[in-house]
Amino acid sequence: MSEQKINQVQFSAETMELVQRIIKRYPEGKQKSALLPVLHLAQAEFDGWLSAPVMDYVASILSIKPIEVYEVASFYSMYNLEPVGKCLIEVCQTGPCWLRGSDDIVDHLEKKLNIKVGETTADGMFTLKTVECLGSCGTAPMLQCGSDYYENLTTEKVDTLIEKLRGSDQRSTYMKSNMQEI
Amino acid sequence: MARLLEHINVPGIETFDVYRKHGGYKSVEKALKTMTPDEVTEEVKKSGLRGRGGAGFPAGMKWSFLDRKSDKPRYLVCNADESEPGTFKDRYLMEKIPHVLIEGMITSSYALGAKTSYIYVRGEYMYIIRILEKAIQEAHANGFLGKNILGTDYSLELYVQPGGGAYICGEETALLESLEGKRGNPRLKPPFPAVAGLYASPTVVNNVETISAVCSIVNESGDEYAKIGIGKSTGTKLISASGHINKPGVYEIDLGLPVEEFIYSDKYCGGIWKGRKLKAVVAGGSSVPILPADLILKTAKGEPRLMSYESLSDGGFATGTMLGSGGFIVMDETACIVRNLWTFTRFYHHESCGQCSPCREGTGWMEKVLHRIEHGHGHMDDIDLLVDVAKKIEGNTICPLGDAAAWPVASAIRHFREEFEYHVRYPEKVKNPKHFELEPFRSEKVLATV
């Protein structure tokens, strides 16, 4: 995907129709409001991250300047500006999760996947990240993968989860499935 | 008595039909068919309802500031960017009983004269967005959204907007920037959103729980709602309980419930886990001052501390705290105050938008200094240095994120200074990240060895 050029980047017809419907939610001329949802769609469609050609493509669809896309994509933590594994594992580490043992979950994942936080496994399957509060403090410790929350984690539950996720691709699950019904 | 969560355990309550069977959407019927928009606003004013997102500003008063003379369209925007550490009540409400929010949005939009409204949900809550989209579709199909709702001349479109992962977008002007497709940089006020908000039009931004509470206020009347609670803390409040307790979760309480009952009663938190002792509580989300066990259970005057805006703030920041978002984080005797604070400060550093230098730089320095104290590399001077940095952030930024980062630091040192000193004195003992789990901190021990 790093070899992408803007003329090779194109949403599927289905996604494009969805994009057009999203743009209609805002007053005329305010199509820039669609930027955050469209970036989620782009990330889901193009391997889970936003390359420069993908961002340029989004800019062209919304009739805004590429810099307006870059500055937004780099501001919000959910947009990945580098390639990620097929399963991006995001472990919450803020106070309430830490109190219930999130450090143990991170340690366990590092050992199990044989990578450090911020790294991707050699087979491109898993990327491990720590994140700040995901609003799951009452069910801590927790992690997010794709659009799913996995809560009240123990090291055993993590083992089962990793085996379940192995071989799957969670990058495209994020946005598409739910917005199609709008 | 439960208002928002009254029917939470009814099977299928997340669907329109079941929700409707249990009295759902009555407030829309009542408001649109028998009340003027101003009469609805008047009821909200009478109810004494205060903003449930954290600031506690009277909701009716906020509504009354909306510029009704402007010829621009008006907007109601629901703040569902729930990101304050320790807070997960809005998520629970939207997941379990989404129609209460949709109903509240319709009734409130009618009161404010909004024809288009948005619910801005934090992007990580994607599965919640799915639930809300479905609820909106159902409301549409049943004539509660769209053109000429219930045959009246009132029309409303309601949309869900996903965020991109940024705590700062919970600040209302940052949220509006984000909804316009920009970075979440808070705006300088004035102008306030009530005058120039979304697309520079008059806008009200309210929290999920605030908007949801409007349903019972309209159904029962503002005066009836105001009878619940204590003093100026009217109504019920959702409390997100987390940390070292037996029963973490979301509880709807009548404001005024004693804190001791909330922590120890089996109806709520069910006491401290593993038979341990209570050490400290952060009562209203990570931003509010931390209090040690004695001060969270009783005020400095020795009166029982209550779950209300006034009682929790009794004593000011010297001996009190704030109700905030109702994110109630409990710590047992093995919790390390320094490490917990370090995670909070790391959070604020990560989430600072970077606009104001006191916050952008100050949060980074506080994180670094706390990291070194926690990891056994601190100096005694670092403790006052932290207090100094916190003081220089507080009040010197565009938005309250700076204050939110400063208060936890200042309060932790105010109430637990000896624990910071212990970290500096005994670097070897704190090198194990679980130091106080091995041996809980006892302040008299420090005194004995000095």
UniProtKB/TrEMBL annotation, chain A:
Binds 1 [2Fe-2S] cluster. PROSITE patterns: COMPLEX1_24K. The keyword NAD applies. Transmembrane segments: none annotated. The keyword Ribonucleoprotein does not apply. Keywords: 2Fe-2S, Iron, Iron-sulfur, Metal-binding, NAD, Translocase. GO terms for molecular function: 2 iron, 2 sulfur cluster binding; active transmembrane transporter activity; inorganic cation transmembrane transporter activity; metal ion binding; monoatomic cation transmembrane transporter activity; NADH dehydrogenase activity. One of its GO terms (biological process) is inorganic cation transmembrane transport. This is NADH-quinone oxidoreductase subunit E. It comes from Ohtaekwangia koreensis. The lineage of its organism: Bacteria, Pseudomonadati, Bacteroidota, Cytophagia, Cytophagales.
